[in-house]
Amino acid sequence: MDLADIKKAMDVIIEHEDVLDLVEDAIGYGLCNGGCGIFAQALKLWIPEGTIVTILVDDETERPEHYGLLFEGHILDGLGVHRSDEAWIYRMEQEWPDWDGRMTFEDTYIPAENIECSPVNSAYRQYEEILSIQLNHIARTVKIMER
Fold first, then answer.
1. DSSP state at residue 116
2. Can you say whether the dihedral through the CA atoms of 9, 15, 20, 21 is positive or negative?
3. What pLDDT, on the 0 to 100 scale, is given for residue 114?
4. In this predicted structure, what is the pLDDT of residue 50?
5. 22 pLDDT exceeds 70?
6. Which of 29, 2, 4, 20 has its CA nearest to residue 135?
7. CA dist., res. 79 & res. 11, Å (int)
8. Percent of the chain surpassing pLDDT 70
9. In sequence order, what are the residues at sequence separation of 6 or more whose Cβ sits closer than 8 angstroms to the Cβ of residue 88?
10. Can you tell me whether residue 75 is helix, strand or coil?
11. Neighbour count for residue 17 (Cβ, 10 Å)
């Protein structure tokens, strides 16, 4: 699957009720408020060539605040596809203007104590796998509909 196909699928995925229901109802968090780690890991299972990346709050704690997946220079998360880490941070700052501190990008996964649904929490592994299957199914459906 190439970046163009992924972008088209992501437009559908982030609005798809099955994806939102799984993350919000089953897990209790949204795609960008606690469920970002599970969503990032599901994206990684769907796009194995991608790398989970982190946004840190640039203060004395440097705590991880959000996760996404870096693929071919673009970052995917619950808000969509961002063309660069700067664009990703800018979008996050627009979504949460009351953020305490500046955000910085880290091109690797950094565990977070403050994000319960971080990608390595084994309690959520089943949801990551189910979500990944849904992402793959939606992407295939989008591709078939284009034919």
1. T
2. negative
3. 52
4. 92
5. yes
6. 20
7. 9
8. 82
9. 55, 68, 75, 77, 82, 105
10. strand
11. 8
What is the identity of the amino acid at 129?
A: E
Distance CA 64, CA 12 (A): 27
The residues pairing with 57 across neighbouring beta strands, listed in sequence order, are: 103
**C-beta separation of 35 from 78 below 8 A:** yes
Interval 8-36 mean pLDDT: 79
- What distance in Å separates the CA atoms of residue 69 and residue 58, rounded to the nearest whole number? 20
pLDDT at position 124 is 63
CA 43 to centroid of chain Cα atoms: 7
Question: 145 is written with which tokens?
Answer: 């509909």
Query: How would you class 137 by CB atoms within 10 Å of its CB: exposed for 0-12, middle for 13-18, buried for 19 or more?
Result: middle
Q: What are phi and psi of 33, to 5 degrees?
A: -140, 65
pLDDT tens, residue by residue, 118-131 = 555 555 666 777 78
pTM of the entire structure? Answer: 0.81
Residue with tokens 């996404």: 68
